[in-house]
Amino acid sequence: MTDSATQPLSGVKVIDFSQVMLGPCATQMLADYGADVIKIERPAGDLSRSSLADDPDGPNNPVFRSLNRNKRSAVLDLSKPEGKQVIYDLVREADVVVNNFRAGVMERLGFGYETLATINPRIISAFGSGFGKKGPLAHKGGQDILAQAVSGLIARKANADDPLTLYPTALCDYAAGMHLVQAILLALLQREKTGKGQEVAVSLFESALAMQMQEAAMWTQRGQNFSWGAFPLTGVFETQDGALVLVGAFKANPLRDISAALGIEDLSLDQRFATFAGQMAHKKELQAIFRERFAKGTTAHWLERLEEQDLLCAPVLTLAEALAHEQSRVNGSLISLNGGSMQVVGTPLAMAPSAFALRRPPPQLGAHGAEVLSEIGYSAERIAGLKEAGVLK
């Protein structure tokens, strides 16, 4: 942990309208490295504050906590002119404005880039959406699973007879959030050269396609479906006490080495399996042999045998097991909030001396509104008036 003054984004002020995951995971990354992130919330708060039904933690549930450390919260009623004026005053001293509303919402609110740039030409407007600002899907609500579906992720399977299924982690949200961080940092670097801000945008759809760059190139250039998970010597195999994953690739004759690890005759000498094409054609038969052998020993036994042959393999762990793993402890993967009463996953970046700093726990709804406005010159009387008028919580 370090003081924010020594961090790379110290002095950068971010006005954050985003909610749920795409935007908040991006702004949390900025905040973790020194940016002052002011979270602008509607009176009901970020949608993730109420995403869990009948939650005992209410608006400060674990989902919200995981995405909003190191931020300050201000609740404003933006339907009122006074609320809009507060935003304009904040923008005058800000560096970045972030939102992940549907296309056109910021413009209708009066906070589109062209408007904000007249107030502060150095402002960077960062927009994360489901499908982009233009096109037939631009105004469709963006959500991770929808992006999985439209980008081809759900349709891609390791085995043709596997059922279609959803990826259970918000992969597109996280990827787009990290792309948004990249875009903001690049815009900040460009501003150092030009003195002017710009508008940057990412989408769940584009990020999902970008994650499939290898597969897309194989399709556009060869008309072939491609999947590392579909390779004939790769798969998930159950053992006596669990499961392991094996990646039979990146070796001259991996099937020979797998056979040696399994203690069976060299399957690479079998004419059915002698070539990659043959292995693909007879994948079911081949993997049935693997499954039968793996089921006769423990995970630890087979991992030892596979690693003796320098094969890529790993146990299949639950999330609970992964979080409790010694590697997680050494890496410092979990951090404690509120004096250790709650834990969340920290930053995946390792930087020294520009290290991550935990300066603030996830904010209570509207906890910092008066503080934020006083910093830009609002008097105590004016702040009290805004509260009385219902503009500021």
Describe the structure using short key phrases.
2 domains; single chain; 393 residues; Rossmann fold; alpha/beta; 11 strands
Task: Give structural notes.
By secondary structure, this protein is an alpha/beta fold. It has two domains: 245 residues, 3-Layer(aba) Sandwich (Rossmann fold); 73 residues, no CATH class. It has 17 helices and eleven strands. The longest helix has 24 residues. The chain is elongated and about 85 Å long. 33% of the residues are buried.
Task: Briefly summarize what is shown.
The protein is of the alpha/beta class and 393 residues long. Helix content is 39%, strand content 13%. The relative contact order is 0.14.
CATH class of the largest domain: Alpha Beta
Beta-strand portion reads 5-15%
Q: What structural category do the secondary elements indicate?
A: alpha/beta
What gyration radius follows from the Cα positions, in whole Å?
A: 25 Å
Mind describing the biggest β-sheet?
6 strands, parallel
How much helical structure, as a percent, in the residues?
Answer: 25-40%
Q: What distance separates the N and C termini?
A: 32 Å
CATH architecture of the largest domain: 3-Layer(aba) Sandwich
Output the CATH homologous superfamily of the largest domain: Crotonobetainyl-coa:carnitine coa-transferase, domain 1
Provide the low-confidence segments as ranges.
Answer: none
Q: Say what the CATH topology of the largest domain is.
A: Rossmann fold
Number of strands: 11
Query: How are the strands ordered across the major sheet?
Result: 3-2-1-4-5-6
